Amino acid sequence: MLHIQKLSFLILAVLLIATSVANADERYKPIKDKIVLEECGACHMAFQPGMLPKRSWEKIMNGLPDHFGEDASLEVATKDHIAAYLKDRAADNGLWGGKFMRGIKKNMTPLRITETPHWLREHKGEVRSSAWTSPKVKSKANCLACHKQANRGFYDDD
After folding, report:
1. Which of 4, 46, 100, 109 is the most exposed place for a label (fewest CB within 10 A)?
2. pLDDT at 48 (0 to 100)
3. How many other CB atoms are found less than 10 A from the CB of residue 10?
4. Strand partners, 27
5. What is the mean pLDDT of residues 106-116?
6. Does residue 115 sit in helix, strand or coil?
């Protein structure tokens, strides 16, 4: 019996360490869906779904006629396909939730990744405010300006 307890503890410790290491860097599953890449990527980088909770993706997809000041309306089937893809892979669609869920209260529905507590923590003190208006960067949503492999899900700084 003691042997089983030690083995169980060891397995649990290895799983916790592996999970911590996997979540320590800034990597997100890249978008593989062709429709999501084409439709979302037509105007901006297609952001990885793990950066917002389901309720945020729902609100964004239901508000496409006024998508941050632009009409991004889609055919119903296309909209439903993209919405399902985003919600199925959202930050809160896992056992513990993604790092982007840290600090997002249940009553919060962020519509901009750049307004999430995780994003704000990651960029505080690292990026001068003038960078966001630089012609090379243009806005906080232009991840590719600094993270050259962001569209592949890599946001590591080094």
Report:
1. 4
2. 94
3. 10
4. 154
5. 93
6. helix
pLDDT band at 21 (very low <50, low <70, confident <90, very high): very low
Question: Which among 86, 70, 1, 76 has a CA at the least distance from the CA of 36?
Answer: 86
The phi, psi pair for 10, rounded to 5°, reads -60, -45
Nearest partner of 116 among 91, 89, 79, 86, judged by Cα: 91
Separation of alpha carbons 20 and 149, rounded Å: 22
Q: Which of 97, 125, 107, 103 is nearest to 115 (CA)?
A: 103
Residue 95's pLDDT band (cuts 50, 70, 90): low
Q: What mean pLDDT is predicted for residues 9-38?
A: 69
The confidence score (pLDDT) of residue 74 equals 97
Q: Is 32 helix (H, G, I), strand (E, B) or coil?
A: coil
Angle, to 10 degrees, between the axis of helix 76-88 and the axis of helix 54-62? 170
